[in-house]
Amino acid sequence: VLYQLGADYYNDIVNASFAFGNGAGLIGTHTGDAPKAQVVLENFKARLCEGPPPCWFSLMTKVEQEATDHFAHRGLIIRRWQARLGGVDLPLASGLPFSLIGVLNGGVGLELGLPTSGQTMMPGDFVSADLELLVYPKDVTRYYGTSQKFNAWLTEATTSSEP
Fold first, then answer.
1. Which of 31, 67, 109, 123 has a CA-to-CA distance to 58 between 20 and 30 Å?
2. CA-to-CA dists, residue 68 to 8, 12, 34, 64, 72, angstroms
3. Residue 19 three-state SS
4. End-to-end alpha-carbon separation of the chain, Å?
5. Distance from C-alpha of 19 to C-alpha of 143, rounded to nearest angstrom
6. 22 Cβ contact partners less than 8 Å away, ≥ 6 residues apart
7. How many CB atoms lie within 10 A of CB 28?
8. CA 48 to CA 114: how far, in whole Å?
9. For residues 65 and 55, what is the distance between their CA atoms, to the nearest angstrom?
10. Cα-to-chain-centroid distance, residue 21
11. What is the enclosing helix (H) or strand (E) of 158?
12. pTM of the prediction?
């Protein structure tokens, strides 16, 4: 595993809605119950995020999830990545694999993995990426800032059925 988002018991998203895409737009979504802890959702096991950059992921907390202290959505954008494994440069178009995994408390986490399985690192090998983490309120009532533009966006996003 190269990177995890929301894969700790204190940073999970219970029964999250998940969406992912690339520079061309939305690729896929998942909504539903989380798998058991440390179990990977079969449809999202080492799945590739291919296509034009950037690759992006969104774990969205349900608005009606008031019984918990999870008041924010989480997003991750991979602006750039490159790798050399086993002495071979991997093509950028090969995509970066990710998995959705169940975590403690019935939550969902995102894991980014190595671009190829079974590879061992050799001298001179590397994996490099520019990641951008986004954490923003799940609805306008959780926002306490002064930006009217952001406030309007949150209002629109809360009422939209689109990820």
1. 67
2. 15, 11, 16, 10, 11
3. strand
4. 26
5. 22
6. 49, 50, 51, 52, 53, 54, 55, 56
7. 13
8. 11
9. 27
10. 10
11. helix 148-159
12. 0.77
User: Is the previous residue joined to 54 through a cis bond, with omega within 30 degrees of 0?
Assistant: yes
Residue 152: in which H helix or E strand, if any? helix 148-159
Confidence of residue 142 (pLDDT cuts 50, 70, 90): confident
Q: Which two tokens stand for residue 86?
A: 């086993």
Tokens coding 14: 């219970």
Query: In 3-state terms, the chain is what percent helix, strand and coil (to 5)?
Result: 15, 45, 40
Pairing of strands 17-22, 25-31: antiparallel
Q: State the DSSP code for 40.
A: B
pLDDT band at 52 (very low <50, low <70, confident <90, very high): confident
DSSP state of 122: -
- Residue 133 CA to residue 118 CA, distance in Å, equals 28
Could you give phi then psi for residue 61, rounded to 5 degrees? -75, 135
Closest CA to 55 of 83, 18, 24: 24
